[in-house]
Amino acid sequence: MELIRTVDGMQAHADEARRAGETLALVPTMGALHDGHLALVRAARQRADHVTVSIFVNPTQFAPDEDFDEYPRHLEQDMAALDTVGGVDVVFAPPVEEMYPDGQQAQRVWVDVEELDQHLCGRYRPGHFRGVLTVVMKLFQACKPHLGVFGKKDAQQYLLLRRMAHDLAMDVEVVGVPTVRETDGLAQSSRNRYLTPDERAQAVVLSRAVQAARKRILGGEQRPTAIVEAVRHELAQAPDAKVQYAELVDTTTLAPVSELEAGQEVLAAVAVYFGDTRLIDNAFVQVPAAP
Ligand code: AMP
């Protein structure tokens, strides 16, 4: 496993792997690796000959009041975790100056999104997805992958990246991997470590809430309001949960659904605060044919 710190070094390495006829996969992360990230690595390894994991805490996707400075950074621990899983060829861990050589204030060209970032997380995190799409575009330019592997846990991010690859005719396949969970159902997240033991126990309501939506939809419930009500009912079981949103949206438009259609793919998605810690979860569901 090679550690590469520069864009030039990464591009030269990727060129060589491509010349050798290898299929390249990239797993972008911000580090603080857990089993969710490692599942992405395994998925990448199954689909590609050469796997790069990038570790970069991207400043342009954090709002000034968010946790950029506090975000955990433990490169050595992360490298050890990747070593244990095996099959990683390169860790690309550039300093901020490599990714924003003139400073982020000097960046003049961005990957922007219309409408799709006005829903779900995007509505509450203005500029977040512009930062994410732009840095993923840069990481793709540096690492030159055939495949980019992402978690469906960050559903809006995954759907926007798929859309970016499609709308900008990019020669990269965006692969989505199912969410890895703790035994009680809580989605693994680098931010779970901020929870107190009591909050951690209550946080199980997120997965219960999105599973309640799935159960209702697969059980034939046709009224989006009844489905969202079931989600909110589960979230209300946690006394300290402050719900930011609980929605049922279409996976193409990301707009709330007013009617369910057989065959339609919908997303039940929630964002909840425990104290300052913001957690998200979701379930992708295919609406069944009416009984
Ligand atoms: P992050 O380091 O939080 O930016 O996440 C890097 C990648 O890992 C993203 O594609 C996330 O969607 C994915 N990811 C994070 N948590 C999980 C999880 N519990 N299961 C699957 N993928 C995850």
Description:
With 291 residues, this protein is of the alpha/beta class. The protein folds into 2 domains: 176 residues, 3-Layer(aba) Sandwich (Rossmann fold); 95 residues, Pantoate-beta-alanine ligase, C-terminal domain (Pantoate--beta-alanine Ligase, Chain: A,domain 2, 2-Layer Sandwich). Helices cover 37% and strands 20% of the residues. The chain has 10 helices and 9 strands. The strands form 2 sheets. The protein has a 6-stranded parallel beta sheet with strand order 1-4-3-2-5-6, sandwiched between helices. Strands 7-8-9 form a 3-stranded antiparallel beta sheet. Helix 6 packs across helix 7. It is globular and about 55 Å long. The termini are far apart. The site of adenosine monophosphate has 17 residues, from helix 2 and strand 5.
Question: So what's the CATH class of the largest domain?
Answer: Alpha Beta
* Mean pLDDT figure: 97
Structural class: alpha/beta
Biggest β-sheet: count, sense, barrel?
6 strands, parallel
Q: What name goes with the CATH superfamily of the largest domain?
A: HUPs
Strand order of the largest sheet: 1-4-3-2-5-6
Examine the coordinates and then state which fold CATH places here, giving the name of the CATH topology of the largest domain: Rossmann fold
Task: Return residue spans where pLDDT drops below 50 for at least 5 consecutive residues.
Answer: none
Query: Would you identify the CATH architecture of the largest domain?
Result: 3-Layer(aba) Sandwich
Bound molecules: adenosine monophosphate
Q: Which shape, going by the Cα principal axes?
A: globular
What pattern of helices and strands is seen along the backbone? EHEHEHEHHHEHEHHHEEE
In angstroms, what is the radius of gyration?
A: 19 Å
Strand percentage lies at 15-25%
Straight-line distance between termini: 53 Å
Instruction: State the total count of DSSP E strands.
Output: 9
How many alpha or pi helices? 10
Instruction: Please bin the fraction of helical residues.
Output: 25-40%
* Structural domain count: 2
